[in-house]
Amino acid sequence: MAHLLLIHGAAHGAWCWRAVLPALETLGHTAEAIDLPGHGDDTADIEAVTLHEFGQRIAEHLTRPTILVGHSMGGYSITQAAEIAPDNISRLVYLCAYTPWPDLSLAQMRMQADEQPLVPLIRLSPTRRSFTFDLSGGPSGGIGNFYHDCPEDAVAFARANLCPESTEASNTALDLTERSQSLPRSYIVCNEDRAIPPEFQRRMAARFDARDVHALDSSHSPFFSMPDRLAALLDRIAQQDA
What we know:
Strand order of the largest sheet: 2-1-3-4-8-9
Oligomer: single chain
Radius of gyration: 16 Å
CATH superfamily: Alpha/Beta hydrolase fold, catalytic domain
Low-confidence stretches: none
Organism: Sagittula salina
Protein name: Alpha/beta fold hydrolase
Number of domains: 1
CATH topology: Rossmann fold
Helix content: 25-40%
Pfam families: Abhydrolase_6 (PF12697)
InterPro entries: AB_hydrolase_1, AB_hydrolase_fold, MES/HNL
GO molecular function: methyl indole-3-acetate esterase activity; methyl jasmonate esterase activity
CATH class: Alpha Beta
Shape: globular
């Protein structure tokens, strides 16, 4: 069976995978989730960390053949890791994630979409070196953009653990080479996503082999809304490389 390394997106941490890890282990895989610098239990100054440091942190955990799963902003982080240390990456999986395009930072990638549901939620810090998401307004506000179909206890857990995000990491474009671009890769579209428009996800996934594009009828947070179904899909993806 496979080993999977799960990478969170903006403002999240390893904590968001709490229900997916045991589900993967039940299916016979080994899996771990880590905090990127400045997230979760990591105490680095979020206003000083970089996208390269995100990739380096991931690379440090690539000690055996690994399926690398990146959620949302984590698509940039796993691609950066692949540029640093591709040898032990058996596949990149982009879970409703931004996939880097040449010369475009994540912030610029976001603006390629026809709709911008996240832009009104972004609140810059006084230094402008970090930002948070405004989740006021309950399900009809920012919470609904990320978690509209998630259990209430999971939403409460997320609200208690969300953190600021690095502006510099979002404003950094990647120098894409064959180190990352030649690796096997899959995309999982979340059809009910209110953070990254599903149509834009399908545009990004159009650059993938059609056999490697999958879908879940989930919000932006399938690790909360349907962890067992997400694990089952990751199991299917893993088995194609077995």
